[in-house]
Specification:
The protein has about 500 residues and is of the alpha+beta class. The protein has two domains: about 110 residues, no CATH class; about 350 residues, Hypothetical protein af1432, CATH 1.10.3210.10. Strands 11-15-12 form a three-stranded antiparallel β-sheet, with helices on both faces. A two-stranded antiparallel ribbon has the order 1-2. It has a two-stranded parallel ribbon with strand order 3-5. A hairpin with an 8-residue loop joins strand 1 and strand 2. Helix 8 packs antiparallel against helix 9, helix 16 packs antiparallel against helix 17 and helix 17 runs parallel beside helix 22. It starts with a strand and ends with a strand. The N terminus is likely disordered.
């Protein structure tokens, strides 16, 4: 028992208060929805674990340096503890505990760990260990991806009030989304390695798929997705994969070293064959996890269905662990239909709130217009866009448009309007004249209803559309449909 002042009875009156057991205290501090939003992307057990450590420290009268360090950094654990001989270069770091994972020198690997939000594991890759990850990492072509932003010039889907208060300008020095194509590519390659290893593929069988997964975006032009839109026929990265690989000498080098078949890899990045289909799935998992986590870091407003769904399903990205192959390894599917549906729903929300949200695309189309003019005049070439990065492109834009493309861009100076027919779109564009930035037709996105479900005995593959209910199917289709239309993007003044 302990004594505590009862303020209602005066400062000289004490009451006997029953001691709370540590677990009872912890129970009251368990993460509710508010705390889950605050710790967005974290494993729910990690939150409980970190609270427990903090409580234990508070109960110590004179904590030692080691106890303080443990409470702040987490329990120290050597990375070797998470070694797995099936995927020796990729260490799965559990996200359900408050850990301070260290290398053999005793230094934390936190900054080197590749995060997979909303899942049970992060990934640590030993790039110093001789093998395919060291090979793919240390190349000029791969370093270029570290300077290409994953989401280009997209703007976060903040509420109007948040936008006006927090982010009225797009700053080149501090873009809204800072994660890169390299971050995404490393995570995709790590997923490929572990998924294949868990499904009985040998080290030799996984080499080419892992290399291809890491380099599937290697032909992404400077500027990212908006640059591809200026000439889709010639700038789509899948169509330039072989050119970039050969230009950098990687096709020949890897063929000699690993038996790498550039023709087959080129078909994989176009989603062909079994490995191509797996790559397409892992690509979607990787970018959806990273993009949605970054959205939540910028805004957790109640209107965001992305944030709400991730809070409700904090381990939604464990969908990658549901990938199982048939016994003969000729096909694969997801073993958990419910989680796959939740993943597809999250991806649908990401398209509606960000990827195809016209409010998020206004600045992107402004930059697209500027790059397209230079591209059509021959002042920027396809080869330059495939060999350089975002910093180079910004220098070029500043050279030719020093006033329009400056240190910051007013996000409130761009507008859009949606129409049901191309005739309405054209009529409105004629009214706006030189203020028009771009005319765009969006047909919606593929909601992924063809993704496969695998039976418990791993012998039968069925499209998810035939497994989930009509209500769920209609929901995904409706979200896709809602993003379609004929859009006019225009500026406040003549551009």
């Amino acid at each position: 028992m302990k004594k505590e002042i009862n303020p209602e009875m005066g400062y000289n009156h004490f009451e006997e208060i029953p001691e709370e057991k540590p677990e009872e205290k912890l129970e009251k501090d368990l993460p509710d929805e508010r705390l889950a939003r605050l710790c967005f992307g974290a494993h729910p057990d990690y939150i409980k674990h970190s609270i427990k450590h903090s409580q234990e420290l508070r109960e110590k009268l004179n904590p030692s340096v080691q106890e303080i360090e443990k409470a702040i950094l987490g329990e120290k654990a050597p990375v070797s503890e998470f070694y797995n001989k099936l995927h020796q270069e990729v260490f799965l770091i559990p996200r359900d505990r408050y850990l301070n994972v260290v290398n053999e020198d005793g230094n934390s690997i936190e900054l080197e760990t590749k995060k997979l939000p909303f899942s049970s594991y992060d990934f640590y890759i030993d790039f110093e260990k001789e093998g395919i990850f060291q090979e793919l990492y240390y190349s000029k072509a791969f370093f270029r991806l570290a300077k290409i932003k994953q989401l280009g010039y997209l703007i976060s889907p903040l509420s109007k009030e948040e936008t006006e208060k927090l982010f009225p300008f797009y700053l080149h020095s501090y873009p809204w989304f800072r994660h890169t194509r390299q971050d995404h590519s490393i995570l995709t390659a790590a997923l490929m390695k572990v998924v294949l290893a868990r499904n009985g593929f040998s080290e030799e069988e996984s080499i080419a798929p892992v290399l291809t997964a890491a380099y599937h975006d290697i032909a992404m032009p400077a500027g990212g997705d908006f640059t591809k839109r200026i000439d889709p026929k010639n700038l789509e990265e899948e169509k330039n994969f072989t050119w970039v690989m050969e230009r950098n000498g990687l096709a020949e080098k890897w063929n000699k070293k690993f038996g790498f078949d550039i023709s087959l890899a080129n078909e994989w990045v176009q989603d062909k064959h079994l490995i191509g289909k797996l790559l397409d799935v892992l690509d979607k998992i990787s970018y959806t996890a990273l993009d949605c986590w970054h959205i939540g870091q910028l805004s957790r407003h109640e209107e965001s269905k992305i944030v709400s769904l991730c809070v409700q399903h904090p381990l939604i990205m464990d969908v990658w662990q549901d990938i199982k192959f048939t016994p003969d390894k000729t096909n694969f599917g997801f073993s958990n239909p419910d989680r796959l549906f939740q993943f597809l729903l999250l991806r649908a929300y990401a398209h509606k709130e960000l990827f195809l949200n016209p409010d998020s695309l206004t600045v992107e189309y402004f930059f697209k217009q500027k790059v397209q003019l230079l591209y059509e005049k021959g002042l920027i070439t396809k080869e330059q866009l495939l060999a350089n990065d975002d910093e180079w492109l910004l220098l070029i834009l500043n050279k030719y448009y020093p006033e329009e493309v400056k240190g910051d861009v007013d996000t409130g100076s761009f507008y859009w309007k949606r129409f049901s027919t191309p005739e309405e779109q054209k009529e409105f564009a004629n009214q706006k004249g030189d203020r028009v930035i771009d005319l765009v037709y969006e047909s919606g996105f593929n909601p992924g209803l063809n993704l496969p479900i695998i039976s418990q005995d791993r012998k039968t593959i069925t499209p998810i559309e035939e497994v989930i209910g009509k209500k769920e199917i209609d929901e995904l289709k409706e979200i896709s449909k809602s993003t379609g239309g004929y859009y006019v993007y225009f500026a406040q003044k003549i551009v």
